[in-house]
Amino acid sequence: LPCSIRSFSEAAGVSVGKVLGTMMQMGIGGVNINSQLDLEAAETLAAEMELSIELKAAETLENSLINELEEREDSAESLIARAPVVTFLGHVDHGKTSLLDYLIGINVVKGEAGGITQHIRAYEIDKDGRKVTFVDTPGHEAFTEMRARGANVTDIAVLVVAADDGVMPQTAEAISHAKAAEVPIVVALNKIDLEGVDENRILTQLTEHGLTPSEWGGEVEVVRTSATKGIGMDELLETLLTVAELNEYSANPDREALGVCLESAQEGDRGVSAKLIVQNGTLRVGDVIVCGNSYGRVRAMTDTLNNKPIAEAGPSTPVNVMGFDEAPGAGDRFHVLDDITKAREIAETRTHASSQESLSGSTTKISFDTFQERLQDGTLGVQADKVRLNMIIRADVKGSLEAIEKELTKLDHPEVEIRILQKSVGGVSLADVSLASASDAVICAFNVVPDERARSLADERGVEIRRYSIIYKLTDEIRLMIEGRLKPEE
Ligand code: GDP
User: Fold this and answer.
1) Which of this chain's residues are annotated to bind GTP (predicted)?
2) Which of 157, 166, 222, 315 makes the best surface tag, with the fewest CB within 10 Å?
């Protein structure tokens, strides 16, 4: 299978110049960085360069095959509307589980699902022939973690706010995470059945967090709900369907399926059961499938609500799949291939690669140093002609946060926009590192330290955490950085 010289050099960890140089010496001319090598050529080249490329060559096979599937464009005629994929976020006990239970007609809160401890639930529901898919992740950390792994499944976030409590710290975090994911947000103002609810207070809080309700002239729909009394459920679904229509979510049902594994389990002698969500194409019984380090042939599929057998699953459909050789990981992407040998080879290569941890180094996350480079070569997210510097700020007290933010707004630069994804009091958490990793952000810790787990995740993901104790030092560094004059940190 062909791979480009670029991928070859990346996989082998040698410069393109060196690869081309070696090819010249071997008498192969007229090639450039995008020229394709077949497996044999790659092996010959590797032998010539004395690289232990066996595994690497297979990795490029994987890359070319999977990349082709990921990048294949669907023609406009092939696209049809698909159901929106909706995720509930919010403070604990505000009613996420209860809302979903009501919508699907079971009661997990009361334990009706028979004590199944499900991590991530996913269901498709039907509203007068129009479908909505709900994916329920346990908290915004899990939501962002999926994003950090490249598994963007959510189209719309429903922010659940209990009317008696209002916006709580976790609500504020959930807002940051949903905003960073750049998905539309719909607010479910839940527990509206309770006595003495002060709606104005909550609408004000929402506005303060940048979610101005549409009834106040903003863009955020606020739906009053009661999960226990079943109030506002139709309106919530209608609102979600309207947002979906506006955003024209679409997919091509006539192609090989691809999507994401939400969770999986080894179920005794029944084998591995994996809960997948199809993002594009149609998955069918009998398909050859590869997902993370696992592969197999789809032996059986069931719907996630009633566990009834189904023969195929189209875009936005969550489905339980039997037939993997081992349990794929949550957040792993899946692809349907035409050949079981290729699927096995890819799965084996990945197993090999992950056991050597050679994959983790492959993503370059943003750091203070790379920001400057990427500022120059234009590979940062560009918004209205400005490159964007995403930041997460943690501080010891609220006063410092406010002071830092005020100073940062003074750093006006024609080409750089500073966007604060999250600012909060307290130490740097795992969720912050996930968020930084999913959104190419840098973390500034002011008079606080990251906890041990956050630190090690940051190392693993290449997320930079800078620590400060003087405000002007922080803002000076940011200014120097956006002006491109910052010295790398020791
Ligand atoms: P989660 O942690 O966000 O998933 O919240 P749960 O769905 O587990 O709900 C927490 C508690 O609030 C449970 O005891 C629910 O019965 C209760 N609850 C959820 N929604 C409502 C509501 O609309 N009204 C009232 N009064 N209680 C609710």
Assistant:
1) 90-97, 136-140, 190-193
2) 166
pLDDT in tens, 58-70: 555 666 788 888 8
- 3-state secondary structure (DSSP) of residue 254: coil
Instruction: Please indicate whether residue 121, judged by its CB atom, sits closer than 6 Å to ligand 1.
Output: no
Nearest CA to ligand 1 atom 9: 95
- Tokens representing 232 are 């506002």
Cα gap 42→84, rounded to integer Å = 43
Say how many Å lie between the CA of residue 145 and the centre of ligand 1: 25
Question: For ligand 1, is residue 154 a contact (CB within 6 Å)?
Answer: no
Question: Alpha-carbon distance 165 to 281, whole Å?
Answer: 42
| Mean pLDDT taken over the chain | 84
d(Cα 215, Cα 469) in Å, to the nearest integer?
A: 42
Q: Which atom of ligand 1 is nearest to the CA of 225?
A: 23
How confident is the model at residue 234, as a pLDDT? 94
| Ligand 1 touching residue 382 (CB < 6 A) | no
Model pLDDT for residues 118-135, shown as the tens digit of each residue? 578 899 998 888 999 999
Q: ipTM of the assembly?
A: 0.99
Q: What three-state secondary structure class fits 273?
A: strand
Q: How far is the CA of 167 from the centre of ligand 1 (A)?
A: 15
Query: The whole model's pTM is what?
Result: 0.75
Q: Please count the residues of the chain.
A: 490
